[in-house]
């Protein structure tokens, strides 16, 4: 080979087969002329046949190594794809799924147990954390390992439950008057709670102990009054009203207050309807309009009135006993 040489560097103390190290060097022709005049070590020029034999051996060795590596790679890939424990040799790579705090990861590992997998991934569960298998569970192909960080928060609720006031507006008590139907009372709540958080989110709450007294709301009625329109179109303001049983009596004689009995006067129980009250009396039977409470009667007790009427006795008997509504007019 033109311009190719192997330099032998001798060493007197080594055996002959180690004495020679072949170092191929391609020397430029311009440098060869200069080297001809300079002192040179012992040089042996190898013939083309020997060089060809050396190159062929190296090529065969490299080709054999490449083929062996390819075969090993194919074998490992076939074992990996098999996915069945009976086809796996000890220490084979297995594919598994790991749910790490809500994030699914595909992992290829030679680990033998779940704890080894977690250790390789840098996961260090403590006593509160959740894993779906025991740490010594053997790793099998395509298995799923699940890990969640768990925090426990035990807390206590201890508070007073304030009551509310419920107000009802009605027309049966005087305008602006308040009537307490039920007194309110506060309640109480004591609760011991066990809360579990997984991966920073509330997972469950358990009530361990509880004492609960609900509050009782206060009920109040407030009179709001209103208006009523008479038969002649006059609008009257009233403070409240009440429904009564009404009878009729003949307009005759003098009333308890000294007035002459006439239409427009009613007899009342003074403990229910004060004498002198101005009323508007109306019902299904008829509209008696504005009346005054100027009389009383021995049989008129409680929510009952006796209406003074003009007319024959038959008319009074026809009236009988009827339900009427009495509006207390505001002056």
Write the layout of secondary structure elements.
Layout: E1 4-7, H1 16-19, E2 23-26, H2 29-37, H3 48-82, E3 94-100, E4 103-109, H4 114-120, E5 130-131, E6 144-148, E7 150-161, E8 165-170, E9 178-182, E10 187-198, E11 201-213, E12 218-223, E13 226-229, E14 235-250, E15 265-267, E16 278-283, E17 287-295, E18 304-309, H5 313-319, E19 322-329
Parallel strand pairs: 3-6, 8-12, 14-18, 15-17
Antiparallel strand pairs: 1-2, 3-4, 5-6, 7-10, 9-12, 10-11, 13-14, 14-19, 15-18, 16-17, 16-19
Explain the overall architecture.
This protein has 5 domains: 45 residues, no CATH class; 36 residues; 55 residues, Beta-grasp domain (Ubiquitin-like (UB roll)), CATH 3.10.20.30; 70 residues, Resuscitation-promoting factor rpfb fold (Single Sheet); 105 residues, RlpA-like domain (Barwin-like endoglucanases). The protein is α+β, with helices and mostly antiparallel strands and 331 residues long. The protein has a 6-stranded mixed barrel with strand order 14-18-15-17-16-19. The N terminus is likely disordered.
């Amino acid at each position: 080979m033109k311009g190719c040489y192997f330099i032998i560097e001798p060493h007197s103390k080594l055996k002959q087969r180690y004495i020679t190290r072949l170092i191929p060097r391609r020397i430029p022709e311009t440098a060869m002329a200069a080297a001809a005049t300079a002192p040179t070590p012992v040089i042996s020029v190898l013939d083309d046949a020997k060089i060809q034999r050396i190159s062929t051996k190296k090529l065969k060795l490299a080709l054999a190594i490449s083929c062996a590596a390819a075969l090993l790679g194919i074998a490992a890939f076939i074992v990996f794809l098999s996915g069945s424990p009976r086809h796996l040799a000890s220490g084979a790579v297995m594919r598994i799924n790991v749910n790490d705090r809500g994030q699914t990861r595909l992992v290829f590992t030679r680990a033998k147990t779940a704890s080894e997998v977690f250790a390789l991934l840098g996961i260090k569960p403590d006593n509160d954390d959740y894993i779906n298998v025991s740490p010594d569970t053997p790793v099998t192909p395509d298995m799923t390992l699940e890990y969640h960080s768990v925090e426990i928060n035990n807390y206590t609720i201890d508070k007073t439950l304030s009551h509310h006031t419920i107000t009802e507006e009605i027309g049966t008590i005087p305008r602006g008057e308040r009537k307490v139907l039920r007194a309110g009372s506060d309640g109480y709540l004591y609760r011991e709670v066990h809360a579990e958080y997984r991966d920073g989110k509330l997972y469950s709450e358990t009530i361990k102990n509880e004492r609960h007294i609900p509050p009782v709301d206060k009920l109040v009625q407030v009179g709001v009054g209103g208006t009523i329109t008479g038969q002649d179109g006059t609008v009257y303001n009233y403070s409240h009203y009440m429904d009564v049983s009404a009878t009729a009596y003949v307009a005759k004689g003098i009333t308890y207050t000294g007035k002459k009995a006439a239409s427009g006067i009613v007899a009342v129980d003074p403990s229910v309807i004060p004498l002198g009250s101005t009323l508007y009396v109306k019902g299904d039977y008829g509209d008696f309009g504005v009346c005054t409470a100027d009389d009383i009667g021995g049989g008129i007790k409680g929510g009952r009135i006796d209406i003074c009427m003009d007319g024959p006795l038959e008319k009074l008997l026809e009236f009988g006993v009827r339900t009427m509504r009495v509006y207390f007019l505001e002056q």
